[in-house]
Amino acid sequence: MDSIGELADDRALLGRTSTAERVADILRTRIAEGFFPPGTRLSEDSIGGALGVSRNTLREAFRLLTHERLLVHRLNRGVFVRVLAVDDVADIYRTRRLVECAVVRGLGEPPFPVAGLAAAVAEGERAAREEDWKGVSTANIHFHRELVALAGSARTDELMRGVLAELRLAFHIVDDPRGLHEPYLLRNQEILDALREGDRDRAEHLLARYLDDSRTRIGEVYAKAVDEPER
Questions:
Q1: Which residue in 8, 135, 163, 219 could disulfide with 127, CB within 3.0 to 4.6 Å?
Q2: Which stretch of DSSP H or E encloses residue 150?
Q3: Closest to 125 measured CA to CA, from 142, 111, 113
């Protein structure tokens, strides 16, 4: 598994008091960033060795991520990164619209702290210039994490980390990443510009249309790309 070597770089994040929650956070991030595509079997020996954690700790982390619907345990076969059902994709977008639009609507008075959003937009533009469409997808995830972070709520951040990690599972099934992600570079920039101008209402309107259009587009493409997986 090519990503195991890079996973070893995350070992320092665990510190001396390694916990299943920290391991789960590392794996959740790696799933969200595309290192473990849907259907990948996660090797206890390889991952445990890379992170330097016990089998019991790793199994507890797997259990946590299974509860978050990122992993699935298959009897006598092991633990796999989940393949979403078409209905899952629609539900993810319903959740995103509820949370992300509420975050923008609930912002206080401008100016808004948009440095993180600007960095994510720049990250996406750099990746597009290099025709790194996986990188564009990752930058898009970063943009929406930064958007939700404007709420200043650890609970909301935690909720959306899991939701966006689940969404990334759908992206990996699609065989035209450029067609999927490139149109949203400009739309992210438009949302950023509205927030820079202090126009919260316009930003929410742009975001709602963005999410509705993305839900329709990804839902259609995903439905063609995958049969209904085992729930």
A1: 135
A2: none
A3: 142
- Residue 204 CB contacts under 8 Å (≥ 6 apart), including other chains: 101, 104, 105
Q: How many CB atoms are located within 10 Å of the residue 212 CB?
A: 12
For residue 38, whether the previous peptide bond is cis, meaning omega lies within 30 degrees of 0, is no
Q: Is the pTM of this model over 0.85?
A: no
* Ramachandran angles phi, psi of 199, nearest 5°: -95, 85
One-letter amino acid at 207 equals L
State how far the Cα of 2 lies from the Cα of 5, in Å rounded to an integer.
Answer: 7
- Alpha-carbon distance of 82 to 76, in angstroms, equals 16
Report pLDDT digits (tens) over 209-218: 999 999 999 9
In the structure, what pLDDT confidence band is assigned to residue 180 with cuts at 50, 70 and 90?
Answer: confident
Banded pLDDT at 79 (limits 50, 70, 90): very high
Three-state secondary-structure class, residue 84? coil
Q: Where are the alpha helices (DSSP H) in the chain?
A: 3-7, 20-32, 44-51, 55-67, 86-105, 115-129, 133-149, 154-171, 177-181, 183-196, 200-225
Cα–Cα dist 143/148, whole Å:
9
User: pLDDT by residue (tens digit) across 3-48?
Assistant: 677 777 776 666 544 588 889 989 988 887 778 888 999 999 999 9
